[in-house]
Amino acid sequence: MITAQQxxxxxxGLGLRRALMSPLSSLSEDDISFMEVAPENWINVGGRFGRQxxxxxxxxxxxxxxxxxxxxxxAPLDWDLLKNVKTFLADHNILAYSEHxxxxxxxxxxxDLLPIPFTEAAVLHVADRIRQIQDYLEQPLIIxxxxxxxxxxxxxxxxxxxxxxxxxxxCQLLLDxxxxxxxxxxxxYDAEEFLLSIPQQRIAYGHIAGHFVEAEDLRVDTHGxxxxxxxxxxxxxxxxxxxxxxxxxxxxxNIPPVDELLREVNVIRDLQASVVDDTGVEAxxxxxxxxxxxxxx
Length: 297
Prior knowledge:
Blueprint: E1 12-15, E2 34-37, H1 47-59, E3 62-65, H2 79-91, E4 97-100, E5 103-105, E6 109-114, H3 120-137, E7 142-144, H4 158-169, E8 172-176, H5 177-187, H6 191-196, E9 203-209, E10 212-215, E11 218-220, H7 229-242, E12 247-250, H8 258-273
Parallel strand pairs: 1-2, 1-12, 2-3, 3-4, 4-7, 7-8, 8-9, 9-12
Antiparallel strand pairs: 5-6, 10-11
């Protein structure tokens, strides 16, 4: 038999931002299954915010989604940051740690997430860094398919690059459905075809978010708007193909009232429920050729 995918969390989650600390204080896991934060925003934070954050991590399952590890950078890994992250994960019982498949530093911090060249050399460089990080943290590193607006030195397609990194590094994937949609518009590929090429056994959890329409052929991944219908449809297709993996709503600014956020969280829940059959078992489709011998018993 094929072993079902094991996820660090389950259900429908929401990113915790400082602006939401008070508005979400009365909620429970009945409302939000898990939460996510950027560790850089909370490491060494004390006082009132530190106490509030501790209250959340004691009540909800948490995942961390990093901003500045700079996986693809030519600069050395930031071992001081990794030391702080490792301590932070342990102190707050964080269940998983993810980062962007991009880079944001060289000889200084660039304050933006830039695309890694889609080349064989970059695959080997990135995979080596991911393996080092996983060995140091003593846990998997989950990498996110990133949005990007240029493809410098491109020798491979985005999906082939992503698959090669996952395989070479032997790491997990944070499947960002909105990023697939945004990139498909900006770079002229079929979003559903890309989605169906994702290796199911690598998925750890998912993201969904809103974006900004800059032009007919340009979308900007802002996390500052409601999720649009085509992105919801792509998430539904992902669940149909892979089963109801845990998925988190990202909202970074233009944050609406809690009731509106929960409405979108509940759309995730409804879509997840739609792929569960009458016996309560998720209908997970797995392509056997994607599985290693160790995963088939």
